[in-house]
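Deviation from plan, reported transparently: 3,4-dihydroxyphenylalanine complex.
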Amino acid sequence: MDPKEIIEQLQLLTQQFVASLQNQSTEQAIRDLQAAYLSKKGKVGELQTSLGQVEPSQRKEVGQAFNKAKQTIVQSVTEAIDGLVKRAEEAYLNAHFDVTLPGRAPAQGHMHPLSIVMYDIVDVFTSMGFDVAQGPEIETDEYNFAKLNFPDDHPARDMQDTLFIEEGKTLLRTHMSPVQIRSMLERPLPVQVVAPGAVFRRDDDPTHSPMFFQIEGLLVDKGIHFGHLKGVLNTFLYQIFGEDVQTRFRPSFFPFTEPSVEVDIQCIYCKGKGCRLCSQTGWIEILGAGMVDPNVLEGVGIDSEMYSGFAFGLGVDRVAMLKYEGITSIKLFYENDPRFLERFRR
Ligand code: DAH
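Because the crystal trials were delayed, the predicted structure below was used instead.
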């Protein structure tokens, strides 16, 4: 057979193949079509038997034409099958998914209610010029008690109240007041700091958690008097509980302040009439405070004739419970139940 004719026929067969490929709708049909051309008895296969009759000098050219034709066929088979799979996938997605539905937003975290309240409180004090100070949760007995003027036989020093690491030496701080001592030792005068942080006590019932949060405040300068204490704390309480909240300063005792006070706000639920929340007193205690005891100042090397100061401490949980109605147990803040925490997304 004339080599030219063979090559022409080959081209024709290839075109035919590609054309009928378009009409196949299943993979099996495509494979059958491929066999009808490429198997030994197939159209290309049969034509190939004529290769033996071609002049040896021209065999190479014709052989290459066969290779090319087979390549074209195999390649278009692969493409056709890929196309089928893709169309099947699209059809499946169109039938099963409504692409116009809104997506599911990834769950986003938010601040814990105690953090929110802590930041709010600290913001009020920083706006009045207070710096934020920190101290370690593992404290020395010296800073937690001795330098704060606690007598040796004070009940807080008892194993029953304090979580000691090494009795008489190291402990989990029971209040934020040791940061007063650290701040006075570390900073130049005047010292004006607030210290938010976790504190620990041997307490565990519906109204007490063994770990809770406090914010301590301290201002030491020349000429500081009780009026400054009152002004700063009233400003703080108005900002947190509203301008119309009533406040009350009651004489009290703390080893590290003299005189000492406890500061109450009028019950925000019953407005002073008396209810369960305020134990029928009409008032709710928010802060401990006082003028820094001269012994404490002298203990950190500050001349108490020249300098004076005030200090205060408050429980963050208490403020949070008052700001968010209906929180029945302080424990809710520490259980991290998402159903509870979800309320505080903002
Ligand atoms: N440290 C006290 C406590 O944990 C709170 C406190 C009271 C801090 C009076 C003070 C203060 O700075 O002046 O109960």
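Residues 113-344 form a domain with the BirA Bifunctional Protein; domain 2 fold (CATH 3.30.930.10). We consider this an acceptable substitute for the interim report.
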